[in-house]
Write a structure and sequence with these properties.
Distance between the termini: 70 Å
Number of helices: 12
Largest sheet: 5 strands, parallel
Number of strands: 26
Radius of gyration: 23 Å
Shape: globular
CATH superfamily of the largest domain: FAD/NAD(P)-binding domain
CATH topology of the largest domain: FAD/NAD(P)-binding domain
Strand content: 25-35%
CATH architecture of the largest domain: 3-Layer(bba) Sandwich
Number of domains: 3
Length: 417
């Protein structure tokens, strides 16, 4: 029997769709199967907590490709198809319907799932998690009828949904175990800015609190009980307490798994014919010199392009620095780089934080590890150059708006500019 020459992609989200697109663009003309558990064709997730949730974007805009694209490019898109097992030795994927698909190369873009809140009442009607398009539809409907929304978790999803709920006219309470929102991601200096943003827009922020129960009436959520005995009335509850990579298939198949599916810079797993990309992949980053797992849109957009080329035998590495963005009320932000909570020793601001028009830089020993531009646009390229250069910069010049960003890696002239 002839060897299988087909490629299979498990996971029909943005990463899977972009991998399929890249394979065709790079000249792969063999059988190509894209498996997705959902009934929706591949779509992008950022609009689910931003424009689509706010009602500013039409449903059709969230999809990665038009519905006709898959047939036109001979991509066998199978929706409602759940992969249940991988046989690396036999080069086969087993499906829930009992069928099996052979492959020459396999790409896992299985994404991640929201962490569930382990408290009584977490499964009541009116308790929402935001991950899928259908989740966004239900939350949008809830925002249209509920007058009191409680959001559990002050991460990106929590804050974006809080902003959307306020835009819909609801009273909003945000509950967070940490002292500030996004504290683990941004650090104290910048987290306070996001706390002030939501307070200024009428959100009741409660930090250092522990949820013990979601109370209900007639099977529907009616409030949230805290460890201190206080209770917040709510018509709907949105839970955003993080996500967990979907590594079950990889683990069962014997692939290396550690905070995601462990892959090298070529996005290759511990098996040479299996790659992984997107939320589920913990990839070795050449610039950072370590494995990282990134849970953001740009990673799901760009990483699978490298994986697809590597599957075709091209000598490529994924070395883009992480990038993500958010839109909340009148604040728009882009973040470029990577820094761990205790990995920096200084934050430098350029611009005015009081009017929320600034750039923040995270530094370690004078090197820019990450930068975030807030309501300042068209600066991603110079910020990326600062991050990737690895060079030390003068913090005084870094914080001076009169010094062009493009000049920061140059020696200052006699005027210090």
């Amino acid at each position: 029997m002839a060897a299988n020459t087909g490629f299979v992609i498990v996971g029909a989200g943005l990463a899977g769709a972009k991998a399929a697109q890249t394979l065709r663009e790079e000249g792969f003309d063999g059988p190509l199967v894209l498996l997705g558990e959902e009934s929706e064709r591949p779509y992008e997730r950022p609009p689910l907590s931003k424009g689509y949730l706010l009602g500013k974007e039409e449903r059709e805009t969230v999809y990665v490709h038009p519905s006709s694209w898959y047939a036109e490019h001979d991509v066998d898109l199978r929706l409602g198809a759940t992969a249940t097992a991988i046989d690396p030795a036999g080069h086969q994927v087993a499906l829930a319907d009992g069928s099996r698909i052979g492959y020459a190369k396999l790409l896992l873009t299985t994404g991640s799932s929201p962490r569930r809140l382990p408290v009584p009442g977490a499964n009541l009607d009116g308790v929402h998690y935001l991950r899928r398009l259908s989740d966004s539809d239900r939350i949008k409907e809830a925002f249209g009828s509920a007058s009191r929304i409680t959001v559990i978790g002050a991460g990106w999803i929590g804050l974006e949904t809080a902003a959307a709920a306020r835009a819909a006219g609801a009273e909003v309470t945000v509950l967070e175990t940490a002292e500030l929102p996004l504290l683990h991601v941004l650090g104290r200096e910048v987290s306070q800015i996001f706390a002030d943003l939501h307070t200024d827009h009428g959100v009741d922020l409660r930090f250092g609190v522990q949820v013990t129960e979601i109370t209900g009436e007639d099977g529907r959520a009616s409030g949230v009980l805290l460890a201190d005995g206080s209770r917040i009335d709510a018509d709907a509850v949105v839970v955003g307490v993080g996500i967990t990579p979907n590594t079950q298939l990889a683990t069962a198949a014997g692939l290396d798994v550690d905070n995601g599916i462990r892959v090298d810079a070529h996005l290759r797993t511990s098996h040479p014919d299996i790659h992984a990309a997107g939320d589920v992949a913990c990839a070795f980053h050449p610039l950072l010199g370590k494995h990282i797992r990134v849970e953001h849109w740009a990673n799901a957009l760009n990483e699978p392009q490298t994986a697809a080329k590597a599957m075709l035998g091209q000598d490529v590495r994924y070395d883009r620095v992480p990038y993500f963005f958010t839109d909340q009320y009148d604040l728009g932000m882009e973040y470029t780089g990577y820094v761990e909570p205790a990995g920096y020793d200084q934050v430098v601001f350029r611009g005015r934080t009081d009017t929320r028009e600034f750039i923040a830089f995270w530094l370690s020993e004078g090197r820019v590890l990450a930068a975030m531009n807030v309501n300042v646009w068209d600066v991603t390229d110079p910020l990326r150059a600062l991050v990737t250069s690895g060079k030390t910069v003068d913090p005084t010049r870094l914080g001076d708006p009169d010094v062009p960003l493009s000049n920061l890696l140059d020696r200052p002239d006699a005027t210090g500019r």
